[in-house]
Amino acid sequence: MKNKKTILVIEDEKPLLEAVKMKLEKNNFDVITSRSVIRAFGSPLEEDGKGTVTKDSIIEALKHIENLERVDAIWLDHNLLGKEDGLDFVTKFKANDGKWSKIPIFVVSNTSNSDLVKTYAKLGVNHYYIKAEHKLENIIKEINLCLEPKK
Amino acid sequence: MPHNRVQSNKELLYKKELEDHQAAILDVLGDNKIDDEDIRLSRRAILNVLEDLEINNAHLEQKTIELELSEQNILHTKAISDAILESIGDGLVVVDKEGKITYVNQAFERMVGWNEEEVLGKSIIEVIPRESEKGEIVEFNERILTKVLSGEIVIADLTNPFYYIRKDGSRFPTSSIVTPIILDGEIIGVVETFRDITKEKEIDKAKTEFVSLASHQLRTPLSTINWYTEMLLAGDVGKLNSDQEKYLDEVYRGNQRMVGLVNALLSVSRMDLGTFVLEPEPTDVTALVRGVVNEQKPQIDQKKISLFPLFGTNIPLIQTDPKLLRMVIQNLLSNAIKYTPNKGKIELSLNLVNKKKTLLFKITDTGYGIPKNQQSKIFTKLFRADNVREKDTEGTGLGLYMVKSIIDNSKGKVWFESVEDKGTTFNVELPVNF
Q: Given an 8 Å threshold on Cβ–Cβ distance, is B219 in contact with A113?
């Protein structure tokens, strides 16, 4: 299909990442995945030198840089591998000259304290879901709704 | 022993007196010319009287000894009582009806840093100010002392602690029991025992933090189960047969229950840690209650319960935390449904009372009720009444605890009336101007 949307999913739990990817693909999305902020931005090495640089991770990283240009939406977990979390991602993401500022971000996390929700809102992220309380289907429905061209 | 010497001295004195009297009487008798027989009889009679007197005297002396002994016993017992009071490990303070200190023990002196001489006769409120966790001084009219002087017994423990301020200005978390002192049916003062619960509080905090952390960690695998079950049930990886679907549905629902339980535990641990901050905003409570009712309509219909909602008119927006109030209404309604048998009745109402200064939410069911002897425990964390534990396995014992915490924190009031096997009414009052 021509109007296939691309979504970047950043989630550190492998089984969850898998599930989200499968469900999104079922719903006609192109899915790019990452398990840490650093990787989402293309550097396979973490700041403290931790993490392993493998051929795969470099390829994965390069792919992200290239693809980030045409991402339609971002599915973001708060707690991620490495030192940085979802907030760091949003900060970096939004800092990019407003180039990506129109791409909607959906935070799907199990952390539910209201301070965090507010901090995301301050950064302009208004979609916040608690994983354990929402069906994948419903979150995807809302993403689709958000991506629909405004009439 | 000294009292023996006293006794023998007294005996001697008394004997001498008797002999003097005897002699005097015989003198008088001797002067008169009366015949010998008369004299003999009179003598005998007198001697008898004297003998009786002597017996009486011996009794009296016996009594004196007994009295002296019991006086000694009393003094001894008092000394022991004093020593006991003095040595009680908990702080002990006694005040009179005016709240002036009349007695303190050593533990009191040690714990608050004031000496007995410094505090006797002074007002307890000035000597050891009592403040809340947040550092707000408890006002005199709210003070426990005042309540106790009107006959109540007041217990403050780990679930409801306060702080006492020491002489040096530092403070410590305290649990205390305050009891009226009643003499001949009249309250003559108040006695309070208290202890430093710093350790207990630390342990409680560690426990709560653990619950919070564990609950959070638990959510991740629960999400995995949720989402994979969801995909299986949706037929994403192939169509299921009806048994498979049924079994998976059980897995899904079991998991949802677990999610609910973990959420409840998280909320409770946040309340206990004090990290549950109220975020009041103008709230349409009528809409909120209607929303909750609609949400739970399926469960109401399933049990064929008739619902009678009654909403007062002109209820203004109320400054309250809508998320937390929602939790309160959800809990009260789901309890009413859960603990009312099929075809029962639930009435709920929302009205302004108290010259429109207070919003009253009332929910009455025709359910199993709360046994009289367990009513005092119904708001306790994890407590479930015996009668419903036998009938329903799904409660956590956290719902009403949360309701109470939320309402207390919102400066509201929650109370109930209940008769076993007849039904229960829960009342929640919230101030219109928070």
A: no
Tokens encoding B340: 């009312």
> Which residue type sits at A96?
N
Q: What is the average pLDDT across B323-331? A: 91
Total residues found in chain B within this entry = 434
> Rg of the Cα trace of chain A?
15
Cα separation, B234 vs B318, in Å, equals: 42
Minimum-distance CB partner of A132 among B228, B259, B279: B259
pLDDT tens column, B355-395 = 888 999 999 999 999 999 999 899 988 888 888 888 776 77
Nearest to B173 by CA among B139, B132, B205: B132
Q: What six digits make up the tokens of B150?
A: 């009107």
B216, B270, B279 ranked by CB distance to A110: nearest: B216
Residues of B in CB contact (< 8 Å) with A are 216, 219-220, 222-224, 226-228, 230-231, 234, 236, 259, 262-263, 266, 270, 275, 277, 279
Q: What are A74's strand-pairing partners?
A: A8, A105
Chain B: residue whose CA lies nearest to A112: B216
Q: Considering only CA atoms, which of B138, B181, B136 is closest in space to residue B156?
A: B138
- Cα distance between residue B259 and residue B253, in whole Å: 10
Question: B218, B223, B271: which to substitute to probe chain A, counting the most A Cβ within 10 Å?
Answer: B223
Helix (H, G, I), strand (E, B) or coil at B195: strand
pLDDT, tens digit, 9 for 90 and up, residues B274-318: 666 777 888 999 999 999 999 899 999 999 999 999 999 888 888
Question: Which residue in chain A is spatially nearest to B275 when comparing CA positions?
Answer: A113
- Asked casually if ipTM beats, i.e. exceeds, 0.85, the reply is no
Helix (H, G, I), strand (E, B) or coil at B313: coil
Nearest to B220 among A110, A135, A136 (CB): A110
Distance CA B394, CA B194 (A): 38
- How far is the C-alpha of A135 from the C-alpha of B179, rounded, in Å? 55
| Among B208, B187, B194, B140, residue whose Cα is nearest residue B163 | B194
For chain B, say whether A98 makes contact (Cβ under 8 Å): no
Distances (CA, A) of B54 to B29, B61, B62: 21, 10, 12
CB contact under 8 A, B222 and A132: yes
Q: What is the pLDDT of residues A128-146, one digit of tens each?
A: 998 888 999 999 999 999 9
